[in-house]
Amino acid sequence: MELHSKDRFKKHLITDIAISKVPHIHYKGLTEDQNDILYRLARLVLIRSKAENNSNEVAYAIDLADLDGKRGFAKGDEHGVNVGSDSDSYHLVDAGDDVAIVHNHPSTQTLSLQDIYLFLTNAPIKVIVVVSNQGTVHYLMKDKNYSFASARDLYNSCVGELPDKPPAKESYGAALDFLTHCTEVGLYYH
Fold it and tell me: On the chain, which terminus has fewer CB atoms closer than 10 Å, C or N?
């Protein structure tokens, strides 16, 4: 079934079929144990979102260097989740080294401008993962050639003249523009 562009912004309720479709990703540069935990968390965000948050956004934060350590978990609404609203997540993002954020999007969209901004402005976040409520996974990762200054400049050029609260379609277009060019600043997008 092909989605129409208007469906890209529509909330989809999570189904057991969507949870079963979450792929096991081999993230660039991560160990098999790290890949396994991110796979489990990608499924778990959909499971918990469906069961506990009406298929709205939820997020996990984990330190990839301490897979058995603390994990943060935050609930949001249909349009976002504040990772910092959970104290464990806040402390991981504030003081961790190789943090992964795994969250869902109720729509079929990939990473949003808000996701990209969170990722760029928090040095400890190494990878941010989004799982659509239909089971598709996308991620953005800082590569060895990552340059914050260049990434900030790219972000600012993509955001350009957007108003403070841009329409969803324009905001999504700016995010796609950033993701199209992110390899130029040492980021890896899949």
Answer: N
Q: What is the Cα–Cα distance from 106 to 87, expressed in whole angstroms?
A: 24
Tens-digit pLDDT profile for residues 1-42: 233 334 556 899 999 999 999 999 999 999 999 999 999 999
Domain total for the chain?
Answer: 1
The CA R_g of the chain, rounded to the nearest whole Å, is: 16
The one-letter code for the residue type at 161 is: E
CA–CA gap between residue 88 and residue 66 (Å, rounded): 14
Which helix (H) or strand (E) is 75 found in, with range?
strand 71-75
**What is the residue range of 27's domain?**
13-138
72 near 88, Cβ under 8 Å? yes
The sheet with strand 99-105 has its strands ordered as: 71-75, 58-63, 99-105, 125-132, 137-142, 187-189
* Cα separations in angstroms, 33 against 19, 115, 132: 20, 25, 23
Query: Is 0.90 topped by the overall pTM?
Result: yes
The CATH number for 104's domain is 3.40.140
Give the C-alpha separation, 41 to 156, whole Å: 31
From residue 116, alpha-carbon distances to 21, 66, 111, 137 in Å are: 25, 24, 7, 15
State the CB neighbour count (10 A cutoff) for residue 8.
15
In a domain? residue 89: yes
